[in-house]
Amino acid sequence: MTTRATGYEPLFTLKPAGPEIWVVDGPSIDFYGLPFSTRMTVVRLADGGLWVHSPIPLEGELAAELAALGPVLALVAPNWIHYYYLPQWQARFPSAQTWAAPGVQARAAKAGLTIRVDHTLGAEEAAAGWSGEIAALLVEGSSVHHEVVFFHKISKTLVLTDLIENFEAAKLPRWARPLVWLAGTRDPDGKAPIDMRWSFRLKRGGMARLRAALAVMLEWAPERVIVAHGRWYTQDGVKELRRAFRWALSR
Fold first, then answer.
1. Are strands 224-226 and 157-159 parallel, antiparallel or unpaired?
2. CATH of the domain at 26
3. Which one of 48, 174, 235, 243 is at 20 to 30 Å from 154 when CA atoms are compared?
4. Residue 216 contacts by C-beta under 8 Å, 6 or more apart in sequence?
């Protein structure tokens, strides 16, 4: 794979994010013409197994680093966009169970990609072996975007995907910097992109459902917030949540 520099190098390697949780920065991908840095999250569960959120390509020494931590037991596709590399991971780790947000399998099929979904997030995760260690919440209210968010209890870390995007201008081509500013996803004031915000506003009852989900996330009181695109938040998790979602919390 030819990898464009993202500013988050080294890529494809585990980076400690807290107790029993790591991030792995991945390659930049083109999404609607914009360069998106990518990031997956890995949690080591109490039984030694690994929970992998939003898998990136299995490149470099990543598979060997994961093997040194423990067996991959759970693969997580948290929303309708973050599924593309699942077939590669399913082939490499055939005993791992795949957990996917609603609509992921249908979206993948439309893109000509066949993925196996063992469990649907938002309906079955209470029975998961990891549910006592990682809380899950399906954020509803958008006419388009269905994302499941997670809270790793030991590290007090909230794991989001696209509900907050936080692109650092210095890590982007100059032509892309005004576009992320217009979208409202430019660091230090990253948030949901403007089209996603409108998808909650335009659906009847959408904002109320989003606020209900935000109340749960704030009650979790995360110390840090991991996001898939751009700079993630190593501290002041509750403060960053309130800032990023002030468009929804203010009435």
1. parallel
2. 3.60.15.10
3. 243
4. 137
